Amino acid sequence: MTKRKHPKEKSSLHPRNRHRQRYNFQELIKSHPPLKPYVRLNDYQDESIDFFNPVAVKMLNTALLKHHYQLEYWDIPPQYLCPPIPGRADYIHHIADLLSLQNKGKIPKGSSITCLDIGTGANCIYPIIGHREYGWHFIGSEIDPDAIFSAEKIIWYNNTLKDKINIRWQRDKTDIFYGIIKENDFIDCTICNPPFHASLKEAQTVARRKLRNLQRKNRKIVLNFGGKSNELWYEGGEKKFIQKMISESQKFAKKCCWFTTLVSKKDHLPPLDKLLKKVKANEVKTIQMGQGNKVSRLIAWTFWTLEERQKWSKERWKE
Hints:
Blueprint: H1 25-31, E1 40-41, E2 47-48, H2 54-69, H3 85-100, E3 114-118, H4 125-134, E4 137-142, H5 145-156, E5 165-169, E6 187-192, H6 200-213, H7 229-232, H8 237-249, E7 256-263, H9 269-278, E8 283-291, E9 294-302, H10 306-316
Parallel strand pairs: 3-4, 3-6, 4-5, 6-7
Antiparallel strand pairs: 1-2, 7-9, 8-9
Helix pairs in contact: 1-2, 3-4, 8-9
């Protein structure tokens, strides 16, 4: 098969995203040599990896984090979510743009900015990228003790992350903000990649469909990016999880400037908008994100007026 011509950039990604260029596997291998055995020429004679091989995906992620974000160490236990780095970076850059709107168009940087990552996972990806790109301080919440151990290990083995990311255990799995946001906390923004399936069965059905579409019917079903139960599904699915988040956010309206979350299914937006009106959010934004052929989005809401947000920025953002 002849070699394909590729565009120079992945134009659907955010302009500041480090991953707009095609992967330079030779440079990535220099940053993380264990990636080398998993790189091979695909049918179009391009260097790539088998994205259906969880080990290969983890090696690629490790190389990307070492090469682009100067990590010394990154690893996750087997079966935990190994997220696609470019999409996670896009979310962080869109949040930076959102915060700049109340700061005279200037993106706030430095440790005076505090973000709360709901369900930070074993991979700790959002805090890593957010801190390395903008110097923000992060709180990461998590219900799984093993995931907490993994995230804290990543922080411990990277001097650049120590004292920059604080992982908190959510003891009550039915809560999102309760038990995490403390009396003296002041949060600039929350972020979340909610579990999008309603059950394990649903997640497996989606995996089978993907394999059939790619004519891999004879392959064993493997969720190539991994994922434990609490990472991939939630009773009632994504919509119920976000509705719970919106309801709780009203109780923490004065502790947090912006609440945000990814929304994978467009059909969920109308009922979520309806609930946001019910809880009297002052402003709601839907931000489109393009990632290759996939279109995603995030919603952001605040209970504060623009004047309150501008005052907050002036008083708290030191850099």
